[in-house]
């Protein structure tokens, strides 16, 4: 049987589900690719780092629209592909296929949600049962998650991981010798890499005999919280310049800490369709310039939600939500709200980063305001609002933000 | 025991520090009042005459787990009202109904239905004294007494000045304070450096339910076994989540009572996802340690996560073998204090 990956990917961009046996085969093939990758994958710039997407499929399409489609842009995804959003299955299936199709252009790092324990509580397991009638697809993907790499180093300078640092890991070499091909443990270096968080104003007290210095047990129940000194030491010991990670919601889409030693990138706009936050991807230029490309959620009229799907199937023609021809980016809008028309956004050949016109156009498109999509998505309607204590207020470091590579 | 000696700062120039002099008093001599200053509170008092439903609403609206009940006639505090009372008196009656058609209804309706099957006491005072003994201390009381009380399994005490309530101090509050003090005292450091296996800490009486148990049945399991939390297991017997009596406050808020008729796994998923959204970060669905973990690590996890217990699991199979609670930690700290 022929395995036409390009045809499969075209279908996946239109949010179609693959049959169960195809998913099984896909996972087996991707494992063969991943098993050859080390725990620390070296990537050359230019590339784009993507933070948590959490099953928000339409917003992942937004990322491709503003950041460029594979393989024209090199992508490093920092984990948390599933749980919480409505389309975890479609999201991870698409990303797994892209990895298989373009193994050198796509890197998939493991997040704390790429785990059997977490996906049973946070939505992915339930979604698999709902969409496939059994747990097979869930077990295929969770077995695949065991193969995802743990971290990335970009040109010996930028260390990328999902969560953060570990008191057990002082050097990159120590990360390389971890046996990663297993379920994420609840403690230990592998757990720490996917669960830890930096804090802005640490107040630590350590009770254990071995002095962990700046680390403290995390309120998440796994991993640690750590501060500036630990970060500085890790960078110095390993000859690195910056740490980029995801794992924490940022209202502005990103956050820069410790005088730009560490940053957080968050790529799920209007998180859980309620939080009203912006999202970003971190674009790294050939000379290691860093730019946080901030974006809002895919506009409401171009996204479907489980509640609306049956109703709009008939209206597919009018809205263009039905069978999409290609992946040229014309199908699902993504235009600046009320400023540019949908069709004016992309032109053929414009998809990648190479064209100067495309670069200019995308510069204008950043900082779009997706706005509050409100409760129209048929999910929770409680309007409880958002906790003000959340991580937010990014973009204070003018040395990085706003400077775009050309 | 506390000698009642006042703490006075010592001028280091004049006198070198000497053990026994007042420059650094023992941790257990700290007075309760000092802890209250750190934790700014607006204490909520429940009047004994109000019906259970109003008392429940007060807890939910103020975001607290318990409040003392004041008897106007006797002019004394007669007990603590917490979600265990809500579970005991109300939900058991509710469980005898089938699942209601209307998925959203007000607190009054909830109690009306429960009352149809089981009488809900209008006055709390009569029933509380047995189930929820009321402990009160004064601002001058040293923490050592709290450690003794908490070691008996009492979760919180009231700090009073005559008949005036100054605040509530819980097991968690004191433990947050103690955790920061431990490394200053060699005897405490030694205690918490031992493993759970060495100290035999924790209760092997592990009450669990499978993930597809209905929440109301799980709550009955808790009241029948007189525990405030149970472990939730997956089909292989591994512990995947924790359900506490106080979790029902999530069902009381914003009229989500239908959740009580769902499975435990569905309910804890809802809670974890809500909490994760509010905090901007998700947590591990269950807080666990192993028998080779130190007491200090187990305690650190409870302090960091603000949980009242951690499950001790067999890493190979993931099943819970025992549970260590704050009460157990208080018991093990006490002998050190009395030395």
Automatic annotation (TrEMBL), chain A:
Coiled coil (UniProt feature): none
Organism of provenance: Rhizophlyctis rosea
Keyword tags: Hydrolase, Manganese, Metal-binding
Lineage: Eukaryota, Fungi, Fungi incertae sedis, Chytridiomycota, Chytridiomycota incertae sedis
Cited Gene3D superfamilies: 3.60.21.10
Protein family per UniProt: Belongs to the PPP phosphatase family.
Name this polypeptide is given: Serine/threonine-protein phosphatase
InterPro entries with a match to the protein in the record: Calcineurin-like_PHP (IPR004843), Metallo-depent_PP-like (IPR029052), PPA2-like (IPR047129), Ser/Thr-sp_prot-phosphatase (IPR006186)
Catalysed transformations (reactions): O-phospho-L-threonyl-[protein] + H2O = L-threonyl-[protein] + phosphate
Cited SUPFAM superfamilies: Metallo-dependent phosphatases
Keyword Amino-acid biosynthesis annotated: no
CDD domains: MPP_PP2A_PP4_PP6
Keyword Nuclease: no
Biased composition (Gly residues): 371-384
Region of interest: Disordered: 369-393
One GO MF term: protein serine/threonine phosphatase activity
Domain Serine/threonine specific protein phosphatases: 109-114
EC number(s) recorded for this UniProt protein: 3.1.3.16
UniProtKB/TrEMBL annotation, chain B:
InterPro entries, alphabetized: AMPK_gamma/SDS23_families, CBS_dom, CBS_dom_sf
All copies of domain CBS, residue ranges: 39-97, 128-184, 202-259, 277-339
Organism from which the protein derives: Rhizophlyctis rosea
Keywords of the record: CBS domain, Repeat
Keyword Nucleotide-binding on entry: no
Signal peptide: none
Protein name per Swiss-Prot or TrEMBL: Cell separation during budding
Matches recorded under SMART domains: CBS
Single GO term (MF): protein serine/threonine phosphatase inhibitor activity
Domain of life: Eukaryota
One GO BP: cellular response to glucose starvation
Gene3D superfamilies membership: CBS-domain
CDD domains per record: CBS_pair_SF
PANTHER family listed in its UniProt record: AMP-ACTIVATED PROTEIN KINASE, GAMMA REGULATORY SUBUNIT (PTHR13780), CBS DOMAIN-CONTAINING PROTEIN (PTHR13780:SF36)
Pfam families in the record: CBS
